[in-house]
Automatic annotation (TrEMBL):
It comes from Thiomicrorhabdus marina. The lineage of its organism: Bacteria, Pseudomonadati, Pseudomonadota, Gammaproteobacteria, Thiotrichales. This is Spermidine export protein MdtI. PANTHER family: SMR FAMILY PROTON-DEPENDENT DRUG EFFLUX TRANSPORTER SUGE (PTHR30561), SPERMIDINE EXPORT PROTEIN MDTI (PTHR30561:SF6). It is found in: Cell inner membrane; Cell membrane. Its main location: membrane. The keyword Zinc does not apply. Belongs to the drug/metabolite transporter (DMT) superfamily. Small multidrug resistance (SMR) (TC 2.A.7.1) family.
Length: 111
């Protein structure tokens, strides 16, 4: 794994934590959790900005977005007992497939 993918994965972790803090803030009623959510999402975007220095933006953003969505869905399921319906699982599978397609396409020569 190169350092740029490390930045993407670090950004994913910060984004998931930010989303957990956002849930804990209850719509910013709890200012500390809301502030932490904002700080962590800012950190996530800093790492994503570093990642695109070495990875095409569309690839980095696809990986980041997909893994962040999946991670947030699983984290909120475990921590807050949010339900994930069968249709949502299907959607998550499509997202994973999109990462695979985008990564495969990024290795092909330009048209």
């Amino acid at each position: 794994m190169n350092v740029y993918l490390g930045y993407v994965f670090g950004s994913v972790v910060l984004d998931i934590i930010a989303n957990i803090f956002l849930e804990m803030s209850k719509g910013f009623k709890h200012k500390v959790w809301g502030t932490l959510a904002v700080l962590f999402i800012m950190g996530a975007f800093v790492l994503l900005a570093l990642a695109v220095k070495g990875i095409d933006l569309f690839v980095a953003y696809t990986i980041w977005g997909t893994l962040s969505i999946i991670g947030t869905a699983l984290a909120t399921r475990v921590l807050f007992q949010h339900r994930i319906h069968l249709v949502s699982w299907f959607g998550l599978a499509i997202l994973i497939f999109s990462i695979l397609l985008m990564n495969a396409a990024s290795t092909l020569p330009a048209a």
